[in-house]
Structure formats: C-alpha cells, structure tokens
Amino acid sequence: MLFTLRSRILILVFLSTIFILSLIFSQENEPLQVSHKGKAYSLHPQTYAELPAMPSPYMTEEGMEIVVACTKSKKYTLIPVTVENGEPMDYKQRQWDKIGKGRQLDVDARDFPALARTGLHSEIELDQTKTITGKSIGEVTYLGRPERSSGEGFMSCDEDIISVLKGDNYLVKKLGLTHPQMAKPLFHVWNIIKRHEKKGGSIGGIDYFLYNGRKVYLIGSESGKGWQESIFNDEILGAYHIEIGRDLDQGEKEFLNEKYSNLSAEQMTELIKIL
C-alpha cells in the first residue's frame, strides 16, 4: 500500500500535466519588496525576527506567489515561489547555470483537451487515448513498469498508464481538487529549492515553511549525478532526491492507530516517517 501511495504522488507530479492560468509576474522581473495590508516586506534573503503578518502561501495583486519560511537560526524570510514557465532544465547538456524552473504551466492539450480546459481528465477521453506525447500507450506502459525505465517503476506490473491516470483522476476528484491544485504545493517546494540555487546557496539554512497554517519541514534536497529519463516525450528529467515532511495532527494519528493497530510502536514510527 505504501508503494502504491508513493507511486501515486510520483504520477501526480511527473505524469499529470499542469494547467494554471498564466501569471503576470515573471521570475525575470522579480521585485525587491511586496506589501500586505499597507506594510512593505523585503524578500529573501532578507530576514525578520518576528513572523510577518501575512498568509502563507500568499499571492500579490501582480500574481507573485510567496511563502513564509523559518531559518535554522529562527528568523523568518519571504520566498517567491511563483508557479510559471521558467528556463528548461537542460541537464543533458551539463549547462548547470541555465537550469531553471522548467515548463510549469504547460499542458498536453492535444492528448487531453479536458484536462487543459478543466484541470481534470475525462474518462471518455482516457478510454479513447491511443498515444501520449507521440508515444503509444503500450510503449509508455512498458517503460513505466518496474525494471524497465527505472527499478521501482512508475506503476505496478498489473497496471497500465490509462488505469493509473484514471485512478489518480478519481482520487483527485474525491478530494474535491484538480490536478493543478494538487501539483501546486509541490511546485512551490521545487521553486524554493531553485530560488536558493539561483542565489548560490542550498536549502540547508531553511528549517520549515508555513503552508495554510501548517509547518512543512525541508528535510533535504540533493541533486543526483545522473537523471531519470521521462517515460514521455517531454523535458522532465528526474535528478533530485527531495525530502519534505510535517507533523501529524491528533486526528491523523488516531486514524493510523486504528487502521494499523497490528503494528508495533517502532513500526508505526517508521510508517509515519514514510508518510
């Protein structure tokens, strides 16, 4: 079950295409300050001793998205995390200084027009899909199964890419969300990482960032020596190992204790770490 859950997260991030309205502000025209309720705040790397009185995440009138983060030295900083189309991630050419956010707003509207229009897949369209980004369903499924394109694979041996997309779509709808809404917080994490790399640093100095009243801890981010090829014809190359986490609330702990009452305290601790 844990493998399946982790696979679904990978699918949502790497296999689902993203549709978000174009934002006015671009990373090339980033301001030095933002304001909220008449008070001006300087952006990262500026820090504050007191927690800024603004929501996190927060979108300015110009369309810039910001999260409030806390450093290991217990100072607060405002980090721009706008979801947008940035420079492509050109790992293969070893042009590390040109690695950008990637194409975060692109959507495969040719194969999935309903997804582009609504943020959710159409079951009818999925049933009629024969190719994705020019590759046949059979080829994508072959590459996505374990021991093919990657060791663990992006789906189990008894799944195909269409059944995975249908399952993901059902889960997203059940949560009352769309694929862009599911992906956006993960893009925010990625953009925090890229922000620090652009400034010549790492996320090691960040303890956590605030997200809808919860603390999300940046446990680690490490770039690999190589990359994971996408199973589609796109620019995506998996080259980072990223760990994030947050504390479970009391309701979540009670759910896990009831659902997995057969586990020992040590096993439950390990389960919580994975989740």
Q: How many helical elements?
A: 8
Which spans of ≥5 residues are poorly predicted at pLDDT below 50? 1-28
Alpha-beta content class? alpha+beta
Count of discrete structural domains: 2
Mean pLDDT: 83
Gyration radius, to the nearest Å? 20 Å
- From the spread of the alpha carbons, the general shape counts as globular
* Percent of sequence in beta strands: 15-25%
Estimate percent helicity. Answer: 25-40%
What pattern of helices and strands is seen along the backbone?
HEEEEEHHEEHHHEEEHH
Cα-to-Cα separation, first versus last residue: 11 Å
Tell me the total number of β-strands.
10
Give the biggest beta sheet.
6 strands, antiparallel
What does this structure look like?
With 275 residues, the protein is an alpha+beta fold. It has two domains: 2-21 and 100-180, no CATH class; 35-86 and 184-245, no CATH class. 32% of the residues lie in helices and 21% in strands. The protein has eight helices and ten strands. It has helices at residues 2-15, 113-118, 123-128, 137-144, 161-174, 179-198, 250-259, 265-274, and strands at residues 33-36, 39-42, 58-59, 65-71, 76-80, 131-132, 135-136, 206-211, 214-229, 237-245. The strands form three sheets. Strands 3, 4, 5, 8, 9 and 10 form a six-stranded antiparallel sheet that branches. The chain has a two-stranded antiparallel ribbon with strand order 1-2. The termini are close together.
